[in-house]
Fold:
Amino acid sequence: MTTDPANFRPRQYPPPEFPPRRPRPFTRTPPAIFPVLLGLLGLALAVRAGSQRLDLPAGPGDTLAGIAVALWGFGALAYLGKLVRRPGVILDDMKAMPARAGIAAGTAGGMAAATLLAAFAPVAAFWLLVAMLVAHGLVAALVLRVLAGLPSEGRVANPGWHLVFVGFIVGAPAAVALGMDGLARALFWTTVPVALLIWSVSAAQLFRRVPPAPLRPMLAIHIAPASLFATTAAATDQPALAVAFAGLGLALLAALILGWAWVLEAGFSPLWGSVTFPVAALAGALLRLDGWWGSLGTGLLSVAAVVVPVIAWRVLKLWPGNVLADRTGAAEA
Structure:
């Protein structure tokens, strides 16, 4: 079949807007802000643990905690404003694998904030913890819904699954701080089997397929569950498990350090935020153990105190002007 040139009509495109349309504030809040905000919260928790271990003044740690909680609160309100404008935008964001992990990091950050608040405002910390556990459950359910609609290659396990399906464990230290050891143990024993399954599947995948270079920084997320399991086990009188999971976390960190050039081959990107919380969480876990474990934790904390703020600054400075949203493909409300 041929087209008669006389009857051919070119496709009409809308003329470009002038001046260009600017999105309303917070309508493109990118989920990529949350991994680095979680990293800052984890660093504040590690600094607090280090201050207690080394018998140092609590002032610097409390200041960092206040800054981290405030930044997380601002980020959470910014994303909530996006959801209020169009609730379905969260499903659009979740179409991208890193964004699913980023949204889960947002609710996990609320649990970490509850841990920091527990000593100063226990009632507020309790309700924040409850709200974030519920919200995290909703996020996990939405992720399952999104995964069910993806082709098989989009449902492959990835390190971000730890944040989504194991992320409840971030609430365990808050539960301990609030005197709810039973809840902490329940979160521990509920999430350990899930993490073991994700670790096993991910290890098998590494032998079959090489992760794309831009996604390799997310491999650091594997460290986070081991670190939080160690912290929770130490806080709930399970010292053998605490040492075992701390050792696993160190082994994973050592593997990433040995392959650092391969992991960071693609150069800097917002996905470097995936490194921040795992490193801080492992430092905090080691600082809660006795003997040379604590010395390792002190050394790792000194590294995290530089790495985490630098990466957080490099990511968050892209947020204004929707630069970060453009680079990460954040949906617009």
Observations:
- The two ends are 43 Å apart (CA to CA).
- The chain has a mean pLDDT of 93.
